């Protein structure tokens, strides 16, 4: 086996070692005194309580799905029972990454507060250090798990030596189990977490702020710990699981498409990487990304204790941009080193084309550009002081109604540049290097995942640090410092969401492409009515999913409200600070409610593709027709899901910052307006609507579209034309057919060799065209090995052509 | 020429005569006394002012588009200059229909008020009589115009005798101009009207109700006339133009697909209708629908002066259901009479299939079911007293934020049954009779348009009648009676919107199918990256369009607010009722603002498909590839547009009725809650958001999706493979190719004859498969005329097959 296959795993282990060092350093920092420590412990325990409840539910879920996958592996010959093992490990790795993140985040918050008592640079170093641990944990475990399983399956199925693309397909199909496991955890973490965080937030606010009139983060409010736990559950664990899933799925999809590049090149290539360079490349890029992210995180620091938001933001940007540029450079190196100088790739309807490795590199640059630009777009539509936010602020003066309309409109309009960007990226990366290019664009973008997550996780840590400062009644300077970090964290949270959407969109496209190639259908034709119908159904699912998620928040929040009201009523002295609130009860309610309420949307996500695949199968419908319908469904979910993700995230972000604008005061109709004004109250209403948008239903879209495409990929072998069973059932047979096309010139003709599989009347076609004189074509045709001999004679008198072909019938 | 071709035109004229009689009858009714008449005259003049301003703008628009179409007709040989004439007449007919509707509506309102002073049955008779005039005007002119132009073009291009499908394609392409003209007016009427009505409404409420504290419809409010004009502009003229456009486009699309049925049957059929039965059928169904609608409207009456909403609703339902059943019966008669007993239809990927006329009839039933069920679905999600509304009412108790979330969620969830219904309808009607079945399903549904519009227009007329009763200070009993009509009108308005969405969705699908057949592409494959990119872009456009429309309402309303404030300030004695408000100024502002603000969304609608078609054309991209991209765009717009239409209409309707629930009082947490409570205020905020949703952006979606697909259809010849110019440029050549497929059985083989056009490397294919022994196939192949002889010999030793074919090269 070539050494290069071990490279990503080494990088991943290096990343995990650095993570461990960083973690130890953070843990060694001063965790503060009595009250601070007490509150921090509550949050830590609350987070653990959520995790352990989640894990119990997960264990049941993983068990059920494992049984289903085992059943599939017995029915479909090309699906191996090892997919169950991969699935379970995918779930465990993702859960473990979330665990690391939650633990470090809940330990880092109080240390950040403590550091903020003396030094802002130190507070940043600690909070960002916590984020770094989270980022490297996710990225390191993702690459480690995926690479290790690939190496194992490559050994198990192929004895670590290239045989043919069909065997590699089995390897990658089994590997898809790992990705499915990871994404399943993301469903629980992102959707369940999203419901948790908003239920706790709304519940705490409704009774605490509104009914009892006590400030946010007041320790007398029984739901305040649940609220702080929620920040970690939703923004840390949820985001981590989301990106873990994207990371793994993207690399997997790129590997699948890499295998098809080898197929297009004749089924085998010779390179210095055991003939699997195109398959190893995405893993290598991911591995390099880990080391680059470490370098990037090292650059994030400030020196002055009087630094403001701009300096902190600048430090983060420095690290971020450096890592993006370094990934670009490493892509150049890896692509030119690992890929053949020119490759043949099949372009749908255009036949085989020669693609240079430089064009693949160009495709990776497209991905990096998308990652960078989408953050700016998000920042423009949701950033404080930006024109869309100022407009919402102005519209708040005429009441909540106009504020809501303005926020909705902002979110809706923000789909314009975002979708044009995605559409351009799809087009460009495909034009450069086919769907392999699309998948590698996604891989390159995802290579900075560790850095992105570090920036992202730093936000909720700082938010928590501020909460602890408030609850433990620190001096105002402490809160001021944590507020600077928190404010920057809010911006990075918004741009991080943009990155997560972009990653989900590109990942889904790559999975979609992998699905089509897996099933062997020759495209997804929406002019077929059943496919069009499924496109409609797919488009509807994200809308209904969002509604269910929003309603879930409402229901869970109501349970929380009842509990907080009960405690205020039943616990003596709670308002005077002498009675102790039962924080754990609120945590338990949020936990149970969120996990219960995520069932229905989860069922929708998993159930629909299964029904579309298996219901018609039960009625004996043609498998490839079903595969095409399922593809239409996947496209509908992806297009609609991306739109609703952008709409909801940006509308929510915009409302949030419109509300925050009043804290510093805003000018409305020439008058300065502040907190407590009617306009501010209208803005608060907008934020109430925006909260589930941006923290629950919006981010859930990422999981919905990825999981839908992954489920499609996993059941692809059942529907696909390449499975052995399918071959027996459907009498697949490779056939060689000759199509003779005459032009006006009598001497020159064009001959097209079409290799056709016929499956229940549907034809899957590969085309190769020769142009030239009859003699030239005959020579080429014979050389191709498919045709033994061919003879074309024109008879001008009778106006007929006689074509005599001898076809190789060995296939 | 066969007599049957004149049948629809006769029906249309009968309908228009009945309309004229009904109109005269309504006009003869007592128009009341001084104050009532005065107010009614203001509304009438305001409506005329809007119309005349709209017509000016329209004239410019029609002129510009005519020039563009003329240019197209010079460039593309198969597009005839007569398309310009058809376009202009389509615009004029639609505008004229709108004019009739607006005039009768603004004349009927005061007569309804006057009748309500003595008799509820009479008030219903008059208000519904006005609606009937509107309905028959729209349906009658639509059928008259379309049929007359068809007869003329059929005479002009084909001398009224069947020649071949290509000539008929030219006829229908030219006829598409009429449809484009009609839909362009709909853009102005629906989008402009939608902005007008809400700008006036919001402007009147914000200053009148909120700032000055005077009730709705108070004559002291300068914007009150504009508000009442708005009801007519949006709900009467806008809805009328919308359905006029759907009606024409549906019938046209069904005719196009009927032509392709003839093509699939060998290019000519023999029947008693000059060989164009499948093309005449949709027009005949439309013609029959007019007479049936007249019968239906005659059934709408009540007898008791003490009738309540239920009786009025019952009378409307009786008429509606009777007309639906009668359309079903007439479809049975017409389909079995006009179509061949069995037809051959090409099913994509499945080849030619035998379709009986009974299956076509089944497809029409699918359309009727969709029309009926979608109304019930809409009624469920938006109706007073229904569970979704009660939930929103409950959520109002915790403030505007939760009310908004509940309303949004209701609209979103309502996409679930609606989309499943549409998807099922697409699937079923296609399974019954291909895309011809889909188009006929739409035609059957639209056959009751006159009845639907009568029911629909009756709502705003009654609303206006109530307004006049209020403004002219009638006795309470008058308002009570008009309120009964108004309340029923609110329900029919919601279900009417459902019908309009369903009609737009089915129309777009039919147009989409016609587009694909027009361009000659063999489907729209979203696995091609550029097509997928355009699917994304198409999905985004309805979202951005909605945002622009909502923002337009906000801007126009602000101008209105300024003007009303100015009048309150500048006109002495206005609040005491001694100074006279300048109603016309408010009308002018609403008119100008609405027409100005609809430019940008209008440009988006028209501009995007043109850019997608012509920008790549300028860069020399392959025409069929562009056609496929444009098809992807159309699909994206349709899927996303239908979703957003349902979402916005139903959310808006739900908020509206949640607010109205407080008028009779609702039970929240065990307490009866009424108008003026905090919960009611929250519900009012929800209604503010819902207003532009349900009256502006939501209904505009219908126009967006239909116009997008129509523009596609009109530019199809430029991109299409069937134009003569295309033939010269691209060296199209019909070729016969033989594909030999061997099964495991050595004696049986399958031969597929593929007729292929090659256009710039893309192949358009028709497939015919023979199964049998070699001898049988040879016999069949020779009989087909395409193959002179064919010889297949298997050599088992060398494992080769020798295929010798003599191909007819005459094509």
From TrEMBL, chains A, B:
InterPro entries: PPase-energised_H-pump. It is a multi-pass membrane protein. GO terms for molecular function: diphosphate hydrolysis-driven proton transmembrane transporter activity; inorganic diphosphate phosphatase activity; magnesium ion binding; potassium ion binding. The chain crosses the membrane at residues 6-21, 57-75, 81-102, 133-158, 244-262, 274-300, 320-339, 360-384, 404-428, 499-518, 530-550, 598-618, 630-647. Keywords: Cell membrane, Ion transport, Magnesium, Membrane, Potassium, Sodium, Sodium transport, Translocase, Transmembrane, Transmembrane helix, Transport. Pfam families: H_PPase. Its cofactor is Mg(2+). One of its GO terms (cellular component) is plasma membrane. It comes from the Bacteria. It is found in: Cell membrane; Endomembrane system. The keyword Nucleotide-binding does not apply. GO terms for biological process: sodium ion transport. The keyword Cell membrane applies. The record marks 493 as: Determinant of potassium dependence. Its EC number is 7.2.3.1. It catalyses: Na(+)(in) + diphosphate + H2O = Na(+)(out) + 2 phosphate + H(+). Belongs to the H(+)-translocating pyrophosphatase (TC 3.A.10) family. K(+)-stimulated subfamily. HAMAP family: PPase_energized_pump (MF_01129). Sodium pump that utilizes the energy of pyrophosphate hydrolysis as the driving force for Na(+) movement across the membrane. PANTHER family: K(+)-INSENSITIVE PYROPHOSPHATE-ENERGIZED PROTON PUMP (PTHR31998). This is Putative K(+)-stimulated pyrophosphate-energized sodium pump. The gene is hppA.
């Amino acid at each position: 086996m070539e050494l290069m296959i071990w490279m990503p795993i080494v990088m991943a282990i290096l990343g995990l070692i650095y993570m461990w060092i960083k973690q130890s350093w953070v843990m060694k920092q001063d965790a503060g005194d009595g009250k601070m420590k007490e509150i921090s412990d509550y949050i830590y325990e609350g987070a653990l309580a959520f995790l352990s409840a989640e894990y119990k539910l997960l264990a049941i879920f993983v068990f059920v799905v494992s049984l289903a996958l085992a059943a599939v592996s017995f029915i479909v010959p090309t699906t191996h029972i090892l997919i169950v093992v991969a699935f379970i490990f995918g779930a465990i790795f993702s859960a473990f990454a979330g665990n690391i993140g939650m633990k470090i985040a809940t330990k880092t918050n109080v240390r950040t507060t403590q550091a903020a008592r003396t030094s802002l640079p130190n507070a940043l170093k600690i909070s960002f250090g916590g984020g770094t641990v989270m980022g490297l944990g996710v990225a390191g475990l993702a690459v480690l798990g995926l690479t290790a399983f690939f190496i194992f399956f490559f050994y198990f199925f192929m004895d670590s030596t290239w045989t043919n693309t069909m065997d590699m397909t089995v390897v990658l199909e089994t590997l898809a189990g790992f990705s499915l496991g990871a994404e399943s955890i993301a469903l629980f973490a992102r959707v369940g977490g999203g419901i948790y965080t908003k239920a706790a937030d709304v519940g705490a606010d409704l009774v605490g702020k509104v009914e009892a009139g006590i400030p946010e983060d007041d320790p007398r409010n029984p739901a305040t710990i649940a609220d702080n736990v929620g920040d970690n559950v939703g923004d840390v664990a949820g985001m981590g699981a989301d990106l873990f899933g994207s990371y793994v799925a993207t690399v997997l999809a790129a590997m699948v498409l890499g295998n098809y590049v080898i197929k297009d090149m004749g089924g085998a290539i010779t390179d210095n990487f055991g003939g699997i360079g195109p398959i190893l490349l995405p893993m290598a890029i991911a591995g390099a990304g880990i080391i680059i992210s470490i370098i990037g995180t090292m650059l994030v620091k400030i020196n002055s204790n009087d630094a403001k938001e701009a300096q902190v933001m600048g430090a983060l940007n420095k690290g971020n941009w450096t890592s993006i540029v370094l990934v670009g450079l490493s892509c150049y190196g890896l692509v030119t080193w690992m890929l053949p100088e020119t490759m043949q790739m099949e372009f749908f309807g255009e036949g085989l084309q020669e693609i240079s490795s430089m064009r693949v590199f160009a495709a990776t640059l497209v991905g990096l550009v998308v990652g960078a630009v989408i953050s700016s777009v998000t920042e423009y539509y949701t950033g404080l002081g930006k024109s869309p936010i100022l407009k919402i602020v102005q519209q708040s003066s005429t009441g909540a109604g106009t504020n809501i309309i303005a926020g909705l409109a902002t979110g809706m309009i923000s789909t314009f540049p975002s979708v044009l960007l995605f559409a351009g990226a799809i087009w460009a990366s495909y034009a450069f290097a086919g769907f392999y290019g699309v998948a590698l664009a996604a891989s390159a973008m995802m290579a900075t995942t560790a850095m992105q997550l570090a920036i992202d996780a730093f936000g909720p840590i700082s938010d928590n640090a501020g909460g602890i400062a408030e609850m433990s009644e620190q001096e105002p300077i402490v809160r001021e410092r944590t507020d600077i970090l928190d404010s920057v964290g809010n911006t990075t949270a918004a741009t991080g969401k943009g990155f997560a959407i972009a990653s989900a969109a590109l990942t889904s496209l790559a999975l979609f492409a992998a699905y089509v190639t897996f099933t062997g259908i020759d495209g997804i034709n929406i002019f077929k009515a059943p496919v069009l119908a499924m496109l409609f159904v797919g488009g509807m699912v994200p809308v209904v999913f969002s509604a269910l998620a929003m309603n879930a928040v409402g229901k869970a929040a109501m349970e929380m409200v009842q509990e907080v009201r009960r405690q205020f009523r039943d616990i003596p002295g709670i308002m005077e600070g002498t009675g102790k609130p039962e924080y754990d009860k609120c945590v338990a309610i949020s936990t149970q409610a969120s996990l219960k309420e995520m069932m229905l949307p989860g069922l929708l996500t998993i159930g629909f593709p299964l029904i579309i695949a298996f219901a018609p199968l039960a009625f004996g419908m043609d498998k490839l027709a079903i595969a095409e319908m399922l593809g239409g469904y996947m496209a509908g979910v992806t297009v609609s899901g991306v739109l609703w993700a952008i709409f909801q995230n940006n509308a929510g972000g915009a409302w949030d910052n419109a509300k925050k604008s009043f804290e510093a005061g805003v000018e409305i109709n020439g008058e300065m307006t502040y907190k407590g004004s009617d306009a501010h109250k209208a803005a608060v209403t907008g934020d109430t609507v925006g909260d589930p948008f941006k923290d629950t239903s919006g981010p859930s879209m990422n999981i919905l579209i990825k999981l839908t495409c992954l489920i499609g990929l996993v059941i692809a072998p059942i529907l696909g034309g390449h499975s052995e069973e399918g071959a027996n059932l459907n009498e697949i047979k490779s056939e060689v057919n000759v199509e003779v096309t005459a032009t006006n010139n009598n001497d020159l003709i064009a001959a097209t060799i079409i290799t056709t599989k016929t499956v229940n009347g549907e034809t899957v076609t590969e085309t190769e065209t020769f142009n030239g004189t009859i003699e030239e074509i005959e020579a080429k045709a014979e050389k191709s090995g498919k045709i033994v001999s061919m003879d074309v004679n024109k008879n001008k008198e009778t106006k007929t052509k006689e074509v005599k072909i001898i076809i190789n019938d060995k296939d």
